[in-house]
TrEMBL record:
Its main location: cytoplasm. Pfam families: TPR_12 (PF13424). GO terms for cellular component: cytoplasm; kinesin complex; microtubule. TPR repeats lie at residues 72-105, 114-147, 156-189. It comes from the Bacteria. Keywords: Coiled coil, Cytoplasm, Cytoskeleton, Microtubule, Motor protein, Repeat, Signal, TPR repeat. This is Tetratricopeptide repeat protein. Belongs to the kinesin light chain family. GO terms for biological process: microtubule-based movement. The lineage of its organism: Bacteria, Pseudomonadati, Acidobacteriota, Terriglobia, Terriglobales. It is found in: Cytoplasm, Cytoskeleton. GO terms for molecular function: kinesin binding. Residues 1-23 form the signal peptide.
Length: 232
């Protein structure tokens, strides 16, 4: 099973896969089902979320066909629900199909493709398949940064995820600048007291501890704790 930090990261990505603008959507029933999936996922009811996501997928495929962004959104939600339960073999083909649909319907450089890449990379990372995850994160970061109107909160998330990938492999020199850049973006875009800022501070603090910079780590941890206390 994945840990709490991973679940929080998954929830953040799940919120991004809300379905891109497209000529014709899958309809109100589908939208209602997707919102129910999100609610169940946030509540930790992953098995039920998977059941509802499967229904949403069926509705989308019936309404808009097999190759539509709303189908990709349904697939991503279903895959996330499986991943949260440690069901990686079920999740992988769903993520891959979602990514393929997004690339074909929206183009290889669309921001939603970056989300699909990030999702698949996260799955590989959760399984310790770091070599497979790294190029996906890097491509996702490139797409997001080059977007006409970049969503900097997404840029920060991918930077943080790539930093974690290096961090857990002991590649601290590669991880630290990514963590610091992610933190700077989150402070600017979300404000200094946002929970995501606390997450970045904690990641950087752990890296500092691992590299024997205890005083710096303690300052970062103290600030993260204050942010969390203020957001209860």
């Amino acid at each position: 099973m994945i840990n709490l930090v991973q679940v929080m990261a998954l929830a953040a990505v799940l919120c991004l896969t809300g379905g891109p603008a497209y000529a014709q959507g899958a309809g109100i029933e589908w939208e209602t089902l997707i919102e129910e999936v999100r609610t169940l996922y946030r509540a930790g009811r992953y098995d039920r979320a998977a059941t509802v996501a499967k229904k949403a997928l069926e509705v989308a495929e019936k309404r808009v066909g097999l190759n539509h962004p709303d189908v990709a959104t349904s697939l991503n939600h279903l895959a996330k629900s499986h991943q949260a339960q440690g069901q990686y073999t079920q999740a992988e083909p769903l993520f891959k199909r979602a990514l393929d649909i997004l690339e074909k319907t929206l183009g290889p450089d669309h921001p939603d493709v970056a989300t699909g890449l990030n999702n698949l990379a996260g799955l590989y990372q959760a399984q310790g398949q770091y070599a497979q995850a790294e190029p996906l994160y890097k491509r996702a970061l490139t797409i997001t940064e080059k977007a006409t109107d970049p969503d900097y909160s997404v840029v920060a998330m991918i930077l943080n995820n790539l930093g974690r990938l290096y961090d857990i492999q002991g590649q601290y020199a590669q991880a630290e600048p990514l963590f610091r850049r992610s933190l700077a973006i989150r402070e600017k875009v979300l404000g200094p007291n946002h929970p995501d800022v606390a997450t970045s501070l904690e990641n950087l603090a752990l890296l500092c501890r691992l590299t024997r910079r205890i005083a710096e780590a303690e300052k970062l941890e103290e600030r993260a704790a204050k942010i969390k206390a203020n957001n209860k």
